[in-house]
Amino acid sequence: MLYRALPILMIVMLLAGCTKERQQMRQALSGKPPVIAGSLEGDWLVADLNGGGAPGPPMRLKFDGGDHGTSRVSGSSGCNRFQARWQQDGAKLALTMGAVTMRACEPGPTEIEGRFLALLPAITDVTYTQAGEAILTAPDGRRMLLKRPPAPAQP
């Protein structure tokens, strides 16, 4: 009996191994741009916040790697500084806010900073562009575009 089931089992195993290739083929035939994998580790600048362009003053993020569940992100939200924990699993992203300083800031930057800080813990997805930018997205459609800072000028 086992000898009859063996060919079927081998076919099922072969088909299961081709799943990634089939997904890539479907993606290529769909006409949609490919999903580019990446990592958030390192320094980033906010280049766009919810389609409103680059906020000013500059907002910076630094994603530090660590053991599972201990990765930290810190940076400047325009006027204040913040810390959070982050965890990335493929395209899924979780940010858990920690501390934020409470400096007195100008009204314009304070409003933009508030939108930025409210968006961070709502983000659930990350995708990457071919240019190496990261797009962080919340389920309600809010998003943030991150770019790597320019390299320092060489003397």
Question: Can you describe what's shown?
Answer:
With 155 residues, the chain is α+β, with helices and mostly antiparallel strands. Helix content is 26%, strand content 32%. The protein has helices at residues 2-17, 19-30, 107-119; strands spanning 42-49, 60-64, 72-76, 81-89, 92-100, 125-128, 134-137, 143-147. An 8-stranded antiparallel β-sheet has the order 5-4-3-2-1-8-7-6, with no helix packed on it. The radius of gyration is 21 Å and the shape is globular. The N and C termini lie far apart (76 Å). The model is unreliable at 9-25 (pLDDT under 50).
Strand order of the largest sheet: 5-4-3-2-1-8-7-6
Distance between the termini: 76 Å
Shape: globular
Provide the structure class: alpha+beta
What is the N-to-C order of secondary-structure elements (H for helix, E for strand)? HHEEEEEHEEE
Strand proportion? 25-35%
- The portion of residues assigned to helices is 25-40%
Radius of gyration: 21 Å
Number of helices: 3
Q: Give average pLDDT, whole number.
A: 79
Largest sheet: 8 strands, antiparallel
The parts where pLDDT drops under 50 for at least 5 residues are 9-25
Number of strands: 8
